[in-house]
Design goal:
- This protein is mainly α.
- 80% of the residues lie in helices and 0% in strands.
Amino acid sequence: MTFAYVSVLPILLIAALSIPLAVIDIREHRLPNKITYSAIIGSLFATFVTSAATSRWLDFGAGLLAGSITAIIGYLLARFKVIGMGDIKLLIAMHISLAWHAPVLILFSLSLGLGLATLIGLIGLVLGKLGPKSLMPLGPYLLIGFLIIGGIPVAEIITEEALS
């Protein structure tokens, strides 16, 4: 096993946590700190170890920068009650791991997750299941976008390692 596999560990960690996170968010409209902080620490640790082993420090810097920008923008959005802090902490973990592979993956993941949430919200409005002030759990949609887009570097590394 090469160190390239270590770089997909944060993606796999978040994938493993996605079911409990989605269920909790749907039931309770919150994402627990114990799980979201574990995801952040796991993302930081795995990307650091991989960067140290492969000398890819710019990629580690990209992950740190993406996580920091997400934290700052997220904090501001949470202060205005646009998004919850649990969602922000989940996004920090996601963005650290995606940015290590390619920062553009963050945009694809967010676009897919938020687009799906918007579509489901609009359908709920049209069907009368949701009102204009209804709260929707955002975590499951963010996780779906992340899992689909996060599969790109996972598949790439597995394929690359299998062919070498």
